[in-house]
Amino acid sequence: MAADTPEQVVGDDIAPEDAAALEHARELLRATAARLAAAPARDEALARYEEPAPVLGLIQRRPTMRALGRAWRLGALLLQADGTVWATGTSTRVSEPGRPQHHTASVELRRAYRAAAIQGGFPMGETVNHGIAPIPLDASLIGGSGPLVVQGGEAWVRWGRDAPVPLGRYLDDLADLLLHPPHGA
Fold it and tell me: Closest by alpha carbon to 29, among 148, 158, 163, 164?
């Protein structure tokens, strides 16, 4: 399996109800991806921000974003068509970066991300998600601390400071919102 995709492994040392919850989570993610692909729902680019090493140790090269695929944004999760899931990171809308204006560090960082997205070949107006982390659908989810966890034989999603939500309900709600956005959104 490629280094940029999460592995899907289940060990023999986990409780049967947790193993069933992991398998059910995989099924829910694949079914939601199929539903969104059939619509077709708006997806977004996934990328890795890279700062290339200098050429010959002296000549600086511009940072870039390397495409990793496409996914649907579902709150705290990014779901790919094959059911692979990522934790959200930073999203950047591709637009002209402008020149450095020596504003706050956060403004200059966003400008640098826009420039890297253009350098990576993403089209204007595209939303690029970077700083993302793969979520392996394996035993590491049991009692984990990430946005997708398995506890008590059920898969849950943590989003912000709210209490965890069952994965099935979470995916249904956010897929419906993506397929039927509110008027004016």
Answer: 148
